[in-house]
Prior knowledge:
The chain has helices at about 10-20, 40-45, 60-70, 85-90, 110-125, 140-155; strands at about 30, 55, 75, 95-100, 130-135, 160, 170-175. It is an alpha/beta fold. It has one domain (about 10-175): 3-Layer(aba) Sandwich (Rossmann fold), CATH 3.40.50.150. The protein has a 7-stranded mixed β-sheet, sandwiched between helices. Strand 1 (about 30), helix 2 and strand 2 (about 55) form a beta-alpha-beta unit. The radius of gyration is 15 Å and the shape is globular.
Amino acid sequence: MKVGAIAPSSPELAAKMLEGIAPNENNVLLELGVGTGAITKFMQDRIPNKESYLGIELDKNLVKSLKAKFPGLNIVCENACETFSIHQKSGLGKVGYIVCCLPFVSLPNEVGEKILWQIDKFMQKGCTFRTFQYAHGYYMPSAIKLREFMRNRYGKSKRSPLVVKNVPPAYTLTWQTN
């Protein structure tokens, strides 16, 4: 397993990550780095049907477990570096929301950059991108790089107040395009 967190995301962080997200067939929710499903379980009630969600997770054992836990969701075992083509092959509608739970701080730079360029393709078509960063890693070079990449293209993020009921505490960051 390649989970990038020391503990599953808390219900409080999940609530912040999902604030204002209302997927449907024409505004698909794309989740990058589904992991153990700590945030996914709070998404279930917001997803009207299987055509409104696509989850991408690299770890095949996690995907097997996730498919058993969430049989009504499209979860695939793929690499987020190929997100745009994975979505195209899925036949699903326009991505309106990206919820990203990938550990950018611990990803190799070139992998993080590839994923950001994949996200960029969706943002150009009008999308909301939300991710979180742990407070202790907020000023690490890779965390700063993610924020700079997004800010240079989509302006300043909307940063949530610190979610202290999470281990470790985290901020959510949101960018939107029309």
